[in-house]
Amino acid sequence: MRARDLIEENPLAVGAAVVAAGVGVGMLIPSTASERRWFGPTRDRLLGEARGLARDIRSSAERSEEATREAAREVRRTLSERNPPH
């Protein structure tokens, strides 16, 4: 249930994390000599951009996570103020 809630509350962050994971897996696969010859400079530039994007996505996800945690703490505080323990 928690994963579903996360997806529903933060669909963009979850989507971005999935894209970042795909890029990460793609970066683990070694390139061939033909790929290096045909796409070398472009590949290097795109990899650099992908790494930067992955850093941005991670940072955004971390901020989203912290905001979600803070909202949950605020809800708990509000509920405990309205319904003090007996």
Key attributes of the depicted protein:
86 residues, mainly alpha, single chain
Radius of gyration, CA atoms, in whole angstroms: 20 Å
Mean pLDDT: 83
Q: What structural category arises from helix and sheet content?
A: mainly alpha
Question: Into which percentage range does the β-strand content fall?
Answer: under 5%
Largest sheet: none
- Summarize the helix and strand pattern as letters: HHH
Q: Pick out the low-confidence regions.
A: none
Note the total helix count.
3
Give the quaternary arrangement of the chains.
Answer: single chain
What's the structural domain tally? Answer: 1
Number of strands: 0
End-to-end separation in angstroms reads 30 Å
As a percent range, the share of helical residues equals over 70%
